[in-house]
Amino acid sequence: MTDSLPLRDRYLGLIDEIVQLTLQGKISSVEMVYQMLQKSITSGTGEIFELALSERLSTIQNQVDAEKDELKKAKANRSLRAIKTIQTQWQRYAEQNKATEALALAVKDITTAAADERLAVFLRFTDPNQKQPLNSSQLQQLAKALQQFAQLDADIAQISEGITRGLAGWQRLQEHLISWLYEQNRELGFGGVPGENGPWATWAKKVNSELPQALFRSLALEQSALEFAEKRSINLSDWVEIALILQYLQRGLVNWFDQQPYNVQAGSKLSISTYLTFAVIWSQLASGFGNTAAVYGNGGSQMMLQILRNFAQRPYFPLYGGIFASFSGSYLRNALDYLDEPLRKVEGTQEKARILTLLGYSQRALGQYQRSIKFHLQALEIARNAGDRPCEIANLNHLSRTYVQEKDYAEAINYSQRALILSRQAGDLTGEANALVNLGYSEVMQAQQLEQIEPETYEMPINYLEQGLKLLEKLGDIQSKGLCLSSLGIAYLVIGDAQTAIKYLEEGFKTAQISGDLYLQGRNLAYLAEAYYHLQNPEKAIYTGSLGMYLLEQIASNEWRQSAGLLTILQGQIGKEAFQHFLQQERTKIIAIIGVDGYDYIPQLLLRYQQDI
Hints:
Structural class: mainly alpha
Number of strands: 0
């Protein structure tokens, strides 16, 4: 076998040589086969060897199957066994050399890339969506390998330096990844007094590099990452350093939350919040750093999309929910808006459809109904083309829900019926349950709009809602169950059965607390206030209305005005003094949910509403 032969022929010759030496008894162990492969296969050419091996295996298998002569058949079988030994040792060799080949490929691609593409190429090798992203050990080796080219190119030197600093920063933070959870008997989540505790403040104290320390301090004070990036001037090594630190923090948190068996809902809820928080931060950093250089802006968008694509593939990706509380500070109030612009540059993929679904739901919660419809229609088309049936059905359901908010009940019924038919065809029980809920809810609201007061008019729609609830309880779908309970509560409120409405709305509020959906929490509380108002129970109406108003305003949902309007009417009826007395009575219970600052903010919100009337 000579080096001048084409690679495929060289590898066919190598395979034939090993087979012959085996048949001659000159290869007595699998270790000898492995050593020959190790010596003869050139790094980065594994696919060519695999093709040659597959070709030779097929040829000898055909000989075995076709041969009639017993002696020749026995020889062919010995050759086949030898080939299978080569195949086994090749698999062992390939597994052990994947890391080496990946590293060699990374060095080659980074050093030969155009200057304005080097950062994007580097980020591709750390992308968690790749089959084998480089791990921390491989990254250390990459940094050393790139040092050999440092004198030839300043950018390569900075990437190498950034990797070294980023890994050192992560090493310092690793043991403090979740230590903040146990400070002052804290509960899971990112809440707390800005700047004093929580993860960002903890990490700012532990990292000893200037840029990540400044970023963490800024986030601890609930300041926008966009504003932070706009005020900073950075170089390539700074960028790579912060990229690795944030990437390892995000992955570490998700892995930890995913492994919390004692509370499945809290674990997945916090994982969802982590994905969203870090995606938004990267989107903001992309906008801010993009002013320094386009390559930094593009790199930030690349990081954001890597996170979202990974998130979209998770089993708990919330096709029917979107506003999660645990990681949200005030700087994230309208944060999901930041994800819209970079997504426009992405081709239609299954992941994009799912992310647009999330954005659509969130826009509906904010009261941006036309924007919500636009996102869901885009997602619907992409999901249909990608064959993602659950996502397609989810968007039909979301469109139904959004058209209810727009008071276009005919269109809401149309979309819920389409979702119901498609979900039953596909066997999507979650989609079917949501479609039943939406169909029942849409028909209740349409009957109310048409001023139909006959009880029998509402029997079938409420039956749809109850069917949906039974199915969701069977499925254990917390997010959708919260929506269903809320819908049932509102339906009973519409038909004048406030007592039954309260039962469903209270259960809906508790369910929304478990799932972490702030919008549903606020919405249930808002309608509970209406139900208590109808039952002439001002104390509970003030308690639930105040909480609902506060929670909805905190996520920038315009629906906070619904509760503010009811509370204003109630204050006018019972007088300011009595109103304040009832609010004071509920102070302890209110503080338990939204804290002292939240309680103190309630009168300010009411005043703001009254001044806007």
